[in-house]
Design goal:
- The protein is an all-alpha fold.
- It contains 14 helices and 4 strands.
- The chain has one domain.
- The strands form 2 sheets. Strands 1-4 form a two-stranded antiparallel sheet. A two-stranded antiparallel ribbon has the order 2-3.
- A hairpin with a 2-residue loop joins strand 2 and strand 3.
- The radius of gyration is 22 Å and the shape is globular.
Length: 378
């Protein structure tokens, strides 16, 4: 009698045919349709995409990258971080330092030093500004600084087996401590005002429609690229181990896997993604200051993932667009109600949409069933 042959599961496709179709459509929208509507269609036309909308969509795509990064650690690994705003801000500060050096003598004080340093009577750049005049070095620091901090923090946290709400609390404490540090003028990061009044990047002016569109396209390509990277990670054996850690970490250890390396690696990857998002955010918005490190910013990232549907990749992206689109509209039409809306939205998702928007799209009847169960429970 022959021994049974063990059939290994077939490798999962990166995307389905319909998935590739949607991906290519998004690529065409970002690289062709949006530039055409903004640069070629006259401003008075109904189909014209305004510079305001280009900047808004570019900002939301940066947030979508952060939501995707949050989904990798929370949705697929079960690690809820309330400090990812720190990594986003660090990437933004690295790019902001380069943009401040690009101002040159065009500042208010006509000095080679940034205006805030002249105001504080500094005579030379601090040591941590040494590489800020190099665009290549800035690109490296955008990923290395958040990644290194995430590695050091994660190494000690995961080796100490800190989990659950305790991990969430210390990540929030970390970003709050960093915010207080960056508020101080002597750290050389602009204090409360941060960095602003950017004029050029790579010697080219920032405040032009063509440069805004270039940044918009780069942000869209980064979002699509990170989506494919995340999809590749979660569909591989590595991703299956991450999901097993989320569901039953003790059984993973019993099976011979060391969860620390997996959790640390995805934690660092997620932090680097947020750093890239922050670097793309700053030249489009035109400012970076310590408020980006506030705990509320990190909590919002978790809300984007929850609203869209964590553990789905596409869900957090949708959640980032929905929540920030509503925020953009409400902060203009009814600014006093925005925070109430955000809180009510999070409560409603927790109670009635545990799988988020994507869960309802996949199973429209799930919302009705949840409402019936909620009524019975009352």
């Amino acid at each position: 009698m022959q021994d049974p042959v063990l059939q290994l599961p077939k490798p999962q496709a990166l995307l389905t045919r319909s998935g590739w179709a949607v991906f290519l459509l998004a690529l065409v929208v970002v690289c062709a349709i949006a530039p055409f509507l903004n640069l070629m269609v006259p401003a008075g036309s109904f189909f014209h995409l305004s510079d305001y909308m280009v900047a808004l969509l570019g900002k939301i795509m940066c947030y979508a990258i952060c939501a995707l990064a949050m989904d990798l650690i929370w949705g697929y690994t079960g690690i809820l971080s309330l400090g990812h705003g720190l990594f986003f801000a660090l990437g933004g500060y690295m790019m902001g330092m380069y943009l401040m050096r690009q101002i040159g003598r065009d500042g208010n004080y006509k000095s080679d030093l940034p205006d805030f340093m002249v105001f504080l009577d500094w005579k030379e750049l601090p040591w941590h500004w040494a590489l800020s005049d190099s665009f290549v070095a800035t690109l490296a620091l955008v990923v290395l600084v958040p990644g290194l901090l995430a590695f050091v923090f994660g190494y000690f946290a995961f080796r100490s087996r800190i989990k659950g709400v305790y991990f969430s609390i210390i990540t929030q404490a970390m970003t709050f401590a960093a915010m207080l540090l960056f508020f101080r003028n002597e750290t050389g990061f602009g204090g409360n005002n941060g960095f602003t009044d950017f004029k050029r990047i790579l010697g080219m002016p920032l405040a032009t429609p063509s440069m805004r569109m270039v940044l918009f396209i780069l942000t869209g390509l980064s979002l699509l690229g990170f989506f494919l990277l995340a999809r590749y990670l979660v569909s591989s054996k590595y991703g299956r181990v991450l999901q097993a850690i989320r569901d039953a970490e003790g059984r993973v250890m019993f099976s011979g896997y060391n969860p620390i390396g997996y959790k640390l690696s995805i934690w660092v990857i997620s932090a680097m993604m947020c750093g890239v998002a922050g670097a793309l955010y700053v030249p489009q918005v035109g400012i970076i200051n310590p408020s980006e490190m506030s705990p509320a910013q990190s909590i919002e990232m978790a809300i984007w993932a929850a609203v869209g549907g964590r553990g789905t990749l596409i869900g957090p992206i949708i959640g980032a667009f929905v929540v920030n689109g509503a925020k953009s509209w409400l902060t203009v039409s009814a600014p006093e109600f925005w925070l109430y809306f955000l809180g009510a939205l999070f409560i409603a998702v927790t109670l009635f949409l545990p799988a988020g928007i994507v869960g309802v799209l996949r199973d429209p009847g799930s919302l009705l069933r949840t409402l019936r169960e909620f009524r019975k429970g009352r």
